[in-house]
Amino acid sequence: MKGRILSGIQPTGNFHIGNYFGALNQWVQLQNDYECLFCVVDLHAITTNYDPRKLLQHTREVAAAYIAAGIDEKKCIIFPQSAVASHAELGWIFSCMTPLGWLNRMTQFKEKAGKNKEKASLGLYSYPVLMAADILAYKATHVPVGEDQKQHLELCRDIAGAFNRFVKDEYFTLPEPLIQKHGARIMSLRDGTAKMSKSDPSEGSRINLKDSDEEIMQKIRKAKTDMNLFPDTFEDAKGRFEVKNLITIYALMTNQDPQSVCSQFSGGNFAPFKKALTDAIVERIAPIRNEFNRLMQDKEALDIILENGAHKAREIADVTKTQVFEYLGLYR
Ligand code: AQP
After folding, report:
1. Chain segment 218-259, per-residue pLDDT in tens
2. What phi and psi values does residue 37 have, to the nearest 5 degrees?
3. Which of 130, 152, 296, 308 would bridge 91 by S-S if both were Cys, CB 3.0 to 4.6 A apart?
4. Is 75 annotated as catalytic?
């Protein structure tokens, strides 16, 4: 094994192809080479407005999506973050070692809080500190991250360094990012400058993993393009954000590079491309969706997987927490 991986996805609703290509698809490959822990980060999901009546359902859905996409629950530890108390406990400890100046630099808080910064929760602001606790609780050596999470991982490394300096020991190793080369960012189908997001109120902005073939077809049909013809090269698509995004999605769905997609559809109008894109998405997503639906029908079996995972995760994280408490002189 090349090391230990920790990663997670928030149960904030509609699991989409951005989450799939930005995270999950990569995890499926990594599980063969690394010892993997994949959590459903429900404590992160409550940092913004959410519906408590739906959270548990969404947590199960994310776990089902992991397994449906190919994560092997026998090989990897799959668990809900809130089931392992050490995450929140270490989160508090690290928040006492994180200068405000470091958090003030985090661009995701600025994006998510938007103009309503004063009304955003303290939890949303300190979210990256809890993420650092998620990672360090398991002393993960590597963290697969989308481009947007890179800054948070750097903060995690800074926090690990600050802890090590404070206790005058190399207790934590600094986790390394594993960033995917292509398709690290899938954009909204309605606005090529905005990230495809679970919490985007526009359903048409994303392809969900559980969308029916008909829904996929409708969403691609309505996906924004522009008045020009299909570009000859991927370079020519520069500045045509929506077009570039659809080419990227097609390339990812069909395992080819964006340039060969341009060569294939060069100079044409968008109708045949959209037809091919719909077919490619359906071919790739339908088997995952069907497996997802099957798993969601047996909630008890899913809960057993989550509880078994939580049990194994606790065994690792509690050792770290105990050692951290000892270093800091906290009562145990
Ligand atoms: N559009 C995207 N393209 C590529 N990767 C993406 N990820 C998210 N959106 C895209 C990757 O998915 C993983 C899980 O993300 P998360 O749920 O922890 O938080 P997020 O990045 O905030 O995801 P969303 O979908 O945008 O959710 P909401 O709307 O709740 O904020 C991460 O690895 C992320 O990079």
Report:
1. 999 999 999 999 999 999 999 999 999 999 999 999 999 999
2. -120, 125
3. 130
4. no
